[in-house]
From TrEMBL:
Chain residue ranges for the region called Domain III: 176-227
Comment, domains: Has three domains with a flexible linker between the domains II and III and assumes an 'L' shape. Domain III is highly mobile and contacts RuvB.
Domain Helix-hairpin-helix DNA-binding motif class: 73-92, 108-127
Recorded name of the encoding gene: ruvA
An annotated GO cellular component: Holliday junction helicase complex
Chain segments carrying region Disordered: 158-177
Function: The RuvA-RuvB-RuvC complex processes Holliday junction (HJ) DNA during genetic recombination and DNA repair, while the RuvA-RuvB complex plays an important role in the rescue of blocked DNA replication forks via replication fork reversal (RFR). RuvA specifically binds to HJ cruciform DNA, conferring on it an open structure. The RuvB hexamer acts as an ATP-dependent pump, pulling dsDNA into and through the RuvAB complex. HJ branch migration allows RuvC to scan DNA until it finds its consensus sequence, where it cleaves and resolves the cruciform DNA.
Region of interest (Domain I), ranges: 1-64
Descriptive protein name: Holliday junction branch migration complex subunit RuvA
Length: 227
């Protein structure tokens, strides 16, 4: 199983790219949002990947963060949701947006993705709502994360240059790290994972630039007894 690729970006198409790794070209399919974060052709690129292998098909799907990759894995586990629909959802909402929508039960936001009907959107929220806290606790981009033992990492012989800051996703790890820290703090205070995830998701939606402390305060206000 190929879990990560690091090499040179050879070309970009509408929905996929070709990454040259030691002279071997890997075609990797991406969401629109992930495609927009890539560096120019000819520069170094690094992506987490998920491989789909069937009798008549072998495809790689690429992601800039473990959160995005995990949501893809979970989305495609839902009945009626294939890889293209998953990428459409991630491309429309982004991994943080998917986390918020599912934690809050906001199936209308999920339905906004191309190819997703109301029944499918409701099924996604219903099936994955309990998974949101665990995914929201993850964070970091591919260039920041430690290589896990479960990843088969393929890298170029000559280390490729890291993507420049201007081509990196906007605040990819800051928001994720703040949410993860807030979730952990609320858990330590005794709040249930689902309640904490929903509160953090709502707080993050109201203030996307909030740091961990601000998210905790806002989430606590949302969790406080009404009356």
């Amino acid at each position: 199983m190929i879990g990560k690729l690091t090499g040179r970006l050879d070309y970009k198409a509408l929905d996929h790219v070709l990454i040259d790794v030691r002279g071997v070209g890997y075609i990797v399919y991406l969401s629109d949002r992930t495609m927009a974060t890539l560096p120019p052709v000819g520069e170094g690129v690094s992506l987490y990947t998920d491989m789909v292998v069937r009798e008549d098909l072998m495809q790689l799907f690429g992601f800039t963060s473990l959160v995005e990759k995990e949501w893809h894995r979970l989305l495609t586990s839902v009945q009626g949701v294939g890889a293209k629909v998953s990428l459409a959802i991630l491309g429309t909402l982004g991994p943080d947006g998917v986390s918020r929508a599912i934690a809050l039960g906001d199936w209308a936001s999920v339905k906004a993705a191309k190819g997703v009907g109301p029944k499918t959107a409701q099924r996604i929220v219903l099936d994955l709502k309990d998974k949101a806290p665990g995914v929201m606790a993850m964070g970091g981009t591919v260039t920041e994360a430690m290589e896990g033992p479960d990843l088969d990492v393929i890298e170029a012989a000559d280390p490729a240059p890291k993507p420049t800051k201007k081509t990196a996703p906007k605040k990819p790890s800051g928001a994720a790290a703040a949410s993860a820290g807030a979730l952990s703090a609320l858990g330590n205070l005794g709040y249930g994972p689902s309640d904490a995830a929903a509160a953090v998701a709502e707080a993050a939606g109201d203030n996307p630039d909030a740091n961990e402390a601000e998210l905790i305060r806002a989430a606590l206000r949302l969790l406080a007894p009404k009356g």
